[in-house]
Amino acid sequence: MSEGNRPLARERVIESLEQSAEVYGLSRSAGRIYGVLYFATDPLSIPELVEETGYAKSTVSNVTRTLTRIGLIHRRSSEGGGRRVRFSAEQEIWFILQDVFQQYIQREIQTTLRTIKRAEAQLSEPESHEGERIRELRATYEDLEEITRLATDLSAAELRAALEAYER
Amino acid sequence: MSEGNRPLARERVIESLEQSAEVYGLSRSAGRIYGVLYFATDPLSIPELVEETGYAKSTVSNVTRTLTRIGLIHRRSSEGGGRRVRFSAEQEIWFILQDVFQQYIQREIQTTLRTIKRAEAQLSEPESHEGERIRELRATYEDLEEITRLATDLSAAELRAALEAYER
DNA sequence: CTGTTTGTTCGGTCCAGTCCGAACAAACGA
DNA sequence: TCGTTTGTTCGGACTGGACCGAACAAACAG
């Protein structure tokens, strides 16, 4: 446990990342492991992450797999070197948020929209109250789909610029 | 349990809302209760929601309180009538998403940014590797704060227009 | 005042997710 | 070849959240 001599500021930020992880549906351990990698100067192996975080080897193994799948960290398979796999953090937070956004929100919107359209098609009585509600839902979700489609193509700076340009 | 004679399309959409609720960090019961209220022609009381959803009275009570606090449904305290409180669904999905967005994402970004700034101030060695990482984090989060601040003022149509205007 | 209807609160159960340790597999160095 | 290091997988303990039923509080009808 080498947390004692670590800079306090870094520890505070890592704790904050732990909390953020929970908000985005990940575990606290995922937030800490990402944080340690974010501050690391070099890629770290699983035993090194065990040393740094205090988590069990199995936990680190599972969490790194999840984070790699999502794209939050990168798995560097260094064939030649002594240690076999090493992980580094994706530094561009914006990329991460875009990925999360696409994988959770956009996907969710699309599947919901598909369900709504299917339900609308099999309405026994299209002019009923249910029909009206479903049509309104569809209109909203079509807007949402378009918004997310456009937003995922932009960088943070572009998105900010687009909004600022519209405001005035 | 009067689900048997309900239109199938409506049931499909409600199931979809149950799933959406989970994505946004709410319980499945919250999704169903909102869905029933969304399709209801008139506001419903707690016993009626119990009848429609099959959930226990206590569950309906707790969930309606949560949904009311978030703004997903509205509590109509009808003093004069026989039944005391009645709930109706907020029909504008965009309002709901904005609320969720503000309460979860924006708040999360702001607290994180505050933590980062505090950590940056108490850096013992500002020119270190940690200092550089923390400064980059701060820059990203300031962008994010600005984006969310601008986005929460816009309607769905405006947001879509802003993005479409920027694209071409 | 008493019984009934509505809503809240409280304790408890159940389940899913997190994390751990141990067993196992694979690759390397001696 | 054999021991050591690294990583994965498996079963289980623990925890938090969702949901339930029962007890309780409040308002109304008779």
From TrEMBL, chains A, B:
Belongs to the GbsR family. The keyword 4Fe-4S does not apply. This is HTH-type transcriptional regulator. SUPFAM superfamilies: Winged helix' DNA-binding domain. Residues 19-128 form the HTH marR-type domain. Transmembrane segments: none annotated. GO terms for molecular function: DNA binding; DNA-binding transcription factor activity. SMART domains: HTH_MARR (SM00347). InterPro entries: HTH-GbsR_regulator, HTH_MarR-typ, MJ1563, WH-like_DNA-bd_sf, WH_DNA-bd_sf. Pfam families: MarR_2. The keyword Transport does not apply. Keywords: DNA-binding, Transcription, Transcription regulation.
